Amino acid sequence: MARHSIFILSALLVLVGTVKADSENTDDGVTVETEEEDQYSSPQISGKGVYLAEHFDNENAFKKQWVKSEAKKQGVDENIAKYDGKWEIQAPSRKILKNDLGLVLTTEAKHAAISTLLDKPFEFTDKPLIVQYEVTMQEGQNCGGAYIKLLSRGTNTKADLRKFHDQTPYTVMFGPDKCGNDNKLHFIFRHKNPKNGTIEEKHSKKPTQRLEDIYKDKEPHLYTLVVRPDNTFTILIDNKEVNSGSLLEDFTPPVNPPEEIDDPNDKKPDDWDEREKIIDPTATKPDDWDEDAPAQIVDPNAVKPDGWLDDEPEMIPDPDAKKPSDWDEEMDGEWEAPLIDNPACAAAPGCGSWTPPTIPNPNYKGIWRAPLIPNPNYKGKWTPRRIPNPNYFKDDHPFRMTPIHAVGFELWSMSPLLLFDNLIVTDDEALAEQWAQQTFVLKRAKISRDSKTLWGRMLRAMNYKPGWWALYGVYCAIPISIYVAYLVKRAREDSDADIKKTDAVMEDDPHQSEGEGEGAEEEPQEKASKADLEGPETQPDSATEAETTPLVDTEGAGDGQRKRKPRKE
Question: Which PANTHER family does the UniProt entry name for this protein (predicted)?
Fold first, then answer.
């Protein structure tokens, strides 16, 4: 049994070491795949319909184009108001495509903002708006956003970008956001009231699908928003539709206000009766209605069963109980034997004082209350009269929003290492699909290939953190190794016990004085050492020790007083 346990432990440790080594190889990019699978080059796209195409693979170009905010968030404590979150161009923690880089928010619990100008302003005329980008929540997401803001006209220069903060006007905000169990996928647009020029945020309805996985699977996801001139919109995640609708019908508050509103000056008349039913004023309590009658009464027909033992208690002190020897009446009080069921009551219908059972009182009626009748003065639920809405307007073209001049990320996240990649703003859905084919589709194909291998499935099951699982394996191995050591010790002790049962040391055994005592029996199968081959060393006191050592009960040899004597070198 000990050998089997050692084998199991060894196999576990080898598996843990293999997982850890494979993890290191994977992190270093050492993968077994064809040259074609490993190829990647930064996506290229052209056309007048592209307003921004950013792959973040060129760090020098990024530093020239993107501007980190130097502003402070408004309405928060001065100590945390500064946008001091750090942005860096990095390779993903989990390498998928060689040489692929992304924009990473490396800090947590800090305000962070970064933005860039479009190559040319986007005007909402007769072409759709398509904004598409990737997000990889490399450490998952507990609380925070990964949305993008499309900044309105007025943010026109890099100097404006350095002032980018939470109150900077935007036209569209789009992307994932989570805190606790509240999983959101924002699509917000700011609508301008054509009557008075005020701006109001319009929030889209919630997606039709559950979104939990995108916040915890630590894989790249592609977010696409399409807003069309016919006022329809579509939202896709990983090229699959999760939300769609109309700018006119599926936003809160609605774009167009109601034509009529409640008159704020109208008040309910004092004599308006909204009670549908009232207590019957003519009803009187019947003369025979006894409100004091109890709900339960003693059964007048009940008879005490024959054989009932009135003088026998149901419980008696245990006659076999004895006061504990360590009971101190001064400290513990007077000792009383525990109670047990009275054996005399076992065969009887009952013991002790008999009382008849109770039954429901047939004359019980409870508290009398007058019945309800329809209210003859009932006028219904009062509502104020409706009047024309003085602020009414009708905008049939909410798509015609404020032009977009820049894009930016203005975020707060409690999870670090948010990675953004392959951002495109265009007016051609085909160009957005072409961009995704060169980037996101390649990543998903690589992930799919990896997941088909044993190691890929293991990584996915371990949430792409094999190093932590290796530590967990070592942690689990500690109690296992202790248990295995215990089994080995027991096996040796059992072996010693068997030997003593067949060759027990007798009182007059002459071998006891010749140094063949318990220490020699302890390890009968150990390989002989050089000192053993040269002969036993003389131990002048061994006979004396044998004579003074008490005999050991061989039946309990495994737990006896035998101790191994130290080997002399």
Answer: CALNEXIN 14D-RELATED, CALRETICULIN AND CALNEXIN
